[in-house]
Amino acid sequence: MKILQITSSARRDASHSTRLASHIVQRLRNADPEATFTVRDLNLTPHPVIDEIALGALFTPAEQRTPEQAARVALDDALITEIQAADVVVLGVPMYNFGVPASLKNWIDAISRVGVTFRYTEKGPEGLLKGKKVYVALTRGGKYRNSPADTQVPYLKTVFNFLGLTHISLVYAEGLAMGADAEQTAIASAYEQIDEALAA
Ligand SMILES: Cc1cc2nc3c(=O)[nH]c(=O)nc-3n(C[C@H](O)[C@H](O)[C@H](O)COP(=O)(O)O)c2cc1C
User: Is residue 11 within 6 Å of ligand 1 at its C-beta?
Assistant: First the structure.
């Protein structure tokens, strides 16, 4: 089994989402000591936004790319290769201003490539990242689960399903900014949700 952990919190040691995602990874590794493990920390290695240069590079045939264009495409290629190789993807995802961190959006933009991770057929779009399990550890200062203010979960489900990532388990730690008791309750609940997700 190959595990890929995606870290998107801007915080390092204090990050709840990273800690929860790391716990999921540790549990998976305990269950399968042979498992290999890669971490992609999107703050340690920030991925560039899509801009006109990136689009120009992506839409230029490989053999016609300048060295600069080839280098830009290679950055995305590296992330695509990583997720293609993974059997399990574990993401730590804080809520930032009701959405996902920009670093995670850049990662999603990089791995979403027509003809590679999805394609269009006569029947519509088809995701090409099939057969993988995805765990998402979501952390929030407030409580937004199942409310219209939660733009993260509908977005992540939509884009992941589009890419063929359909086996998704969500773990929520909410109310982390609502006092010490609420924080403790949220974290305890998240660990219970992890138990349930791993048992499923
Ligand atoms: C820039 C920023 C924006 C945030 N926006 C929200 C928000 O919109 N809603 C919310 O519930 N919490 C928000 N929070 C709180 C974080 O979601 C919370 O602190 C969470 O634990 C961060 O994840 P981490 O512990 O992995 O760093 C925000 C925090 C930061 C730093």
Answer: yes
